Structures are given as structure tokens and as C-alpha cells.
Amino acid sequence: MTRPSLQIAQRRPTRQIRIGSVLVGGGAPISVQSMTTTKTRDVEGTLSQIWALAAAGADIVRCTCNDSDAAAGLAGIVPRSPVPIVADVHYHYEMALAALEAGVQGLRLNPGNLRKPQEIKLVATEAKARGVPIRIGVNAGSLHPDIERRYGGATPEALVASARQELEYFAEVDFYDVKISVKASSVPLMVEAYRLAADTFDYPLHLGVTEAGPPPDGLLKGTAGIAALLAEGIGDTIRYSLTADPVEEARAGRRLLEVMGLRERKGIDLVACPSCGRSEIDVIKVAKAAEEALAERNLSLQVAVMGCVVNGPGEAREADIGIAAGRHRGHLFIKGKIVRVVSEDAMVDALVEEAEKLAAEGVEARLAAADPGAEEEADADGKEPFVSSAVGPNGVAVQLGGAKRTQATHLEQS
Ligand code: SF4
Prior knowledge:
The protein is of the alpha/beta class. It folds into 2 domains: about 15-260, Dihydropteroate synthase-like (TIM Barrel); about 270-385, Sulfite Reductase Hemoprotein, domain 1 (2-Layer Sandwich). The protein is built from 15 helices and 17 strands. It has an 8-stranded parallel β-sheet. A hairpin with a 2-residue loop joins strand 14 and strand 15 (about 335-345). The radius of gyration is 27 Å and the shape is elongated. Iron/sulfur cluster (SF4) binds near residues 273, 308, 310, 312 and 413. Iron/sulfur cluster binds near residues 273, 274 and 312.
């Protein structure tokens, strides 16, 4: 379903590079990366993880190339991979050369531990001959010792200086097919380093908070750093570094771009109220059941689950479809318009059934097929006077009652 979209920021103009079939920078869609955790020599195991990463949203996958067995594995992996493969190289320039021989579509070099200018230039020359780009992957945890000394530590300036020095070696062999990362595990340091890199270079930037740890903290750290920069228009490709199944990294990267309006949504976007004392259903349970049922069906819809009818349909008006609970019934709505009222136990099934029809037939057709009495029935649920009793100070039961909760009250609670 299409809807008008706001642009979160003007993207920073950069040069463009190509990693296999994926363009990076120069206005190309921001791509999602992840890295395999298998031994690269294990061709079948690594390929199976690569396919899972691609299915979860990875556009590019990185594999370590740490020995000759890994390089041999890459030769078997690259031709069968659904996405371009980048070889991750530390310490040994020979591994970069072997990965190029294996046919990888990209290299990542760490200037902190692959330091000899002659070796760096040789790798760049060979990459240039094959049209393979290189990421200058600076990392605050493995900064070039000379640079760390010069700057008194891993400062933003030190990270950027390391990238600049590598670029100078590359320029000596006329190599400019480059993207840059200046990662750190500290979010403020990473954000400042990338801001400085964006001011200094016109190469595409690969964003990431390195060694972010396990979810949920790792996700929060990654999101804090990556989203802050994306909202400033900085960043051309991203990777979450989680201590978790890398599928979670790919999924998080993809979802971050979707929720920021930087990539088209592929699956379900669930809008659900936080629920409160007014809720008439277990919102968490219903939302989860609806999300799972719709995700299984691969429907690309924004779906709302609201715990009561007070503001539910109105607040979720932008959702393609939703359900709000009212007096133990479900008010099913499309684009904020009530189309059916169903019993509480049929809510999720009705939502899924209507979502399938909506995806197949479109909004107009489903609104035309709405139950003609639904609005009135739902209105009656909403208008049911709130009546309760309490015991007054003189011991006599008193009636409390009257109006529905106001939107202002509701918003305070939300
Ligand atoms: S008042 Fe708002 S938060 Fe509370 S149940 Fe209703 S829709 Fe959910």
C-alpha cells in the first residue's frame, strides 16, 4: 500500500560505488549489511546463514577471510550467494589477495592492523584490476598505534586521520573505489567520528556501533548511533553489531530503515496502543497473535490493535486496517472506517481474513463491502454510558457516570 511519505533528512551527496549488484552512496537506497558467524571454510553452513540473512533483509554479507581454508571457502560461496560477499581482512594482506582471487565483490581492510604501505597498495592495485571496492574499516578498538599516540587516544579526529592515511596510500596507486567506516562501541564517539568523516570525505559511509553487545541493549546502542546519523542525512550502508544470531542484525537493519522511511516496507507494521486500565482485551496477546498471523501470510500492511474504542479507530486512522475492542466486541476498521463488528474471540481471525481481502482487493472494494450496520453498532458500543457505583461518605451507594473519557485524558495516559 502506498502512502505519502515525509523525508527524514536530505541525504548527504557522496560518490557511488558498486558492490556486486548493490550500489552504495550517490543516492542509492541505504543498504543493510550483516556478517556471518560460521567458519568460512564451511561452505554449506555459511551459505545457509547467508540465505537466512538475505531473507531477513541483508543486501550485502561479510565473511571473514582469516586463513587459506576460508579463502577456499569463499570461492565456493560467492557464486552461490544470493547477495554480494565482502571479505573481512585483518593483519594479512595475503588473505585480501586470496579473497580477490576467490571472486569476492568487496573487501574490508582494517588500517589498524594491516599497516604496511606496500602491502596496502598492492591490495588496492589488485582490487582496482578487478573492479572490487574496499571499505576502509577503522575501529576505535584497533586503531593504528601511531595515530592513537599522535591524538592521545581513539578520538573522532584520530579515527578520521586513520581513514585519511589509508586513502593517501590508495591514491598513490590511483584507487578511489572506497567506502569508509569509523566505528566505536561508544555511541557519542561514533556519532562524532562519523560527523567529522562526513565533513571530511565525499566517499560513502558504512555506519555501525561496533561491539554493541546482546539485545536489547545492543539494539538500543546500534539504533541510537545509526539513527542519529541517518536523521542528519549521513550514512549509505548500515550494520548492527549484535552478540546474537546475525539474522537479528539483518532484521533490525531493515526495520530501522523502514521505520525511518528510508526503505520501502516489506512486511507488517504493527501500530498498537500501550493499553491502560480502560483496555477491554489483552492488547499484548492480541497484537502478538495478529502480528504473527499476518507476518506468516507475508502481507505488507500497517495494522492497528487498540484496546478500547474511545480513540482507537481515530488514532489509528492512518493504519490500513485495525481492530479496537469495545464492550467485548471487536470493531474492525479500514482506514479509520468501521467495516464490521465481531465477537471478542473472533477478533484475530476476522482481522486476518479482512487483511487478506484488503491486500487482494484494495481499500475501495473493501469499504464498499462493509457491513452497512457496523458503524451504528460500533457507535452504540462507544456511547454506552459509563456507570459505576461507589459508596459515599454517608455509606449510601452513589452513581458515578457520564461522559466518555476525553481525548486529552487518553493522551496523558498514552
Ligand atoms: S485509552 Fe488508549 S491506551 Fe487505553 S486501551 Fe484505549 S486505546 Fe489503548
